[in-house]
Amino acid sequence: MRAKPTALLTLALLLAGCAGREHLRPDFGFSNQHNIQAQALDPEAGRRERAVAVSDGQKMEQALKDYRKGRPEATRDHLIISTGK
Predict the structure, then answer these.
(1) Domain span including residue 64
(2) Number of domains in the chain
(3) Cystine design at 51: which of 33, 39, 64, 83 (Cβ 3.0–4.6 Å)?
(4) Is residue 47 part of a domain?
(5) From CA 63, how far away is CA 66, in angstroms rounded?
(6) Does a structural domain hold residue 84?
(7) What pLDDT, on a 0 to 100 scale, did the predictor assign at position 82?
């Protein structure tokens, strides 16, 4: 018989949590959105079309081979990356 009062009390507490958001201030969540925007370098970056970085495959392959051989300095002269513009 003790299960009924406990179940009713638990149900009442759960329903009290669903009462609504009237107790929240109108600017609730503003600081969170502000912090997200402040951390973004360019908030509009995702909406603009970007050029794809292009490189010569053979030069990249040679740079990788040089790097694996322990000569990363040799890759500086022949690694040219353009943005297609």
Answers:
(1) 52-85
(2) 1
(3) 83
(4) no
(5) 5
(6) yes
(7) 60
Q: What is the pTM of this model?
A: 0.28
> Which pair of tokens denotes residue 22?
């009237």
User: Is 81:53 a contact under the CB 8 Å cutoff?
Assistant: yes
Query: What number is the average pLDDT over the span 33-56?
Result: 80
Query: DSSP assignment of 57-73, as one string?
Result: HHHHHHHHHHHHTT-GG
Listed as own residue / partner, the contacts of 70-73 with beta carbons closer than 8 Å and 24 or more positions apart are: none
Q: Confidence band (pLDDT; 50, 70, 90) for 21?
A: low
Name the token pair of 3. 């299960």
The answer to whether 32 touches 24, Cβ cutoff 8 Å, is no
Residue 1 counted as domain residue:
no
In whole angstroms, give the CA distance from residue 11 to residue 16.
9
Which tokens belong to 19? Answer: 């009462």
- The structure tokens 């929240």 sit at 24
* Interatomic CA distance for residues 70 and 63, integer angstroms: 11
